[in-house]
Amino acid sequence: HTQVFPAAVVRVRVSDALAVREFIAAAPNSAPAHPWEFYQYNVRRSNAIGAFRALPDTRDTSCTTRRYHLTAAQLVRSRVSIIIAFHNEARSALIRTIMTLYLRTPPRHLYELILIDDCSEDIELLPALLRLQLPPFMRDFSSSATAKSSRTHTRSAPSAASPQVTIKTARNKQRSGVIASRNRGARLATGDYLLFLDSHCEVNIGWLEPLLVRAAEAAGDGVIAVSPVLDGIDAESLAYTASSNNLMGGFDWNLHFHWIPRPQSIQSLQQQQRPQHFAQNVNAKTAYLRDSGWEDKLFGEARMRRNTNTAAMAFKSPTVAGGIFMITRDWFFKLNGFNPLLETWGGESIEFSIKLWLCGGQIEIVPCSRVGHIFRKEHPFRFPNGSDSQTTYLRNSKIIAESWLDAYKYFFYASKPAAKHISVNQTDIQLSYQLKSTLNCRPFSWYLLHVFPQLKLPNDDFIAFGTLSCAELCLQITNRATNIDIDIDIVSQVHMSSCFHSDVTHWYLHRQHSQLRASSGACLNVERMPNRTNWWRRPTRPFNFRVVLQPCSDGEDVGENVGHYQKQNQRWLRRGGWLVHQQTQLCLDNPLSDVVVVSHCRFAAPTQLFRFAMELQRL
Ligand code: UDP
Ligand code: MN
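Above: the input record for the complex with uridine-5'-diphosphate. Below: its predicted structure, written as tokens.
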């Protein structure tokens, strides 16, 4: 009892094409003077194309000859709920997304289509869509309206054997953003799988079958999310072009999404070695890889394809492809969906990807599945609440870093210092911690080692950084170092205190100039005690010294006369767990309660053992 998917045969009736023209023309501002202005793509071209067009078959030829089988048991668990959230989408782009879905998806899998209008200006769009006399919308009104705030329509079945497509729609009264809207769509869904799609896509021939087959196959190994390869639809010409088979989703320490070349062979991932070889000239989007010198000149893409012979094989990816993916509904909700704390747009698919990998799942890109997507250079929409895209993205990124990156979050802060000043409610972060403990999720270090070794540690500047603790306590600055040039008792400015409060100090031990710098910008130093008589008789007696905060000296050597601002005095050496002040050769010490001093280094003295949250060299 296996199911063989039939080849898709597509024909659009003339009357349907006319209905679509009317629908598009009825949009407010349907023929704008500046075709780019509102949508950030050429809406005139998009309108001219209409609901459907032939697309080049961009799959590897081996995909087209393969047959995609589902067993009878798999088949009954393959109902797909497609979720599309949209805000101010051109009618033509949205209807094309829907019509390609309808025409290029086997009816038995297209279980329901969920459209969430995120408070678009075109308030007539959804009602007009539902009035269309096109096959996906022709429906039996007697079975409408189930969910309270949403509308449900079922296509009337021409014959009892043909399954029905349910269309559920909802409109947000207020702009909620893609994250909340997709979550809302997911809550309306009742299928076995959820599949998230943008509202300016064209699914290509045979797109769903390989996703379903791969998801079913891999289900035995635990949960899996699968993504298609996203082919490019040019924002100006609307031309459809194939994307590389060899790109996975990834991100940098800013938590910005990037396409990155996948490792040269599947084996290298399975053996969990650091992949050595990357494709060359894969895509302009990988330029940042070239900049960081990660590319191996020896391996062009053609050579990679020849060597691996995996053009049709699904491959692991650190993140889903641009937020377009399919996962079982069960697991989507087990993972709490998209983190509802993230606002408007940005980071949610990176967050979802990280938590999926860490909490027992995996992600694959299925190259035989192709979906076209209009890639835009600018956001066509505003960010609500007086925010802008950068601020929103930064705040979302901070929540992701605080939730999932453990101590590696300091790499994020190192590349995005502005994020430190954004306030995030700690009780909010607790939600992710709860999820982590309920699902027994792995630490981020596992992800770096086994899933995303391409994300290199930016360890050039620092030997170590993060909170600096001795036993249970952390080295902490009080008074926020505002008065450090004024002659006050600066001893009180550093002390040991609990590591578990929101304002705990982060320290950075610089590789080159060995300064131990606090996030506030001050540097730790050792200074002779004032008012202490006879100190010169025994100048290295530790109690003649105290640990102080000073402005960090910068530039090269500042000369003899600058006294305690000399950079040399600000040098600290990492020896095992010790932090040794270079000039005095004394060790940082926490002899009792909150006191921090320097004292003679003693072998294995627990009060002298300090740990940074992130140590980038072996101790
Ligand atoms: N979107 C939305 N509400 C918003 C912003 C975006 O529903 O506030 C929709 C948008 O119409 C699109 C999807 O979310 O269907 C993803 O947004 P976009 O395409 O701008 O993201 P990109 O593809 O550029 O990553
Ligand atoms: Mn998009």
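Notes for the reader.
Residues 85-87, 89, 118, 175, 177-178, 181, 198-199, 322-323, 344-345, 376, 379, 381 surround uridine-5'-diphosphate (ligand 1) (CB under 6 Å).
The chain has two domains: 7-374, 462-615.
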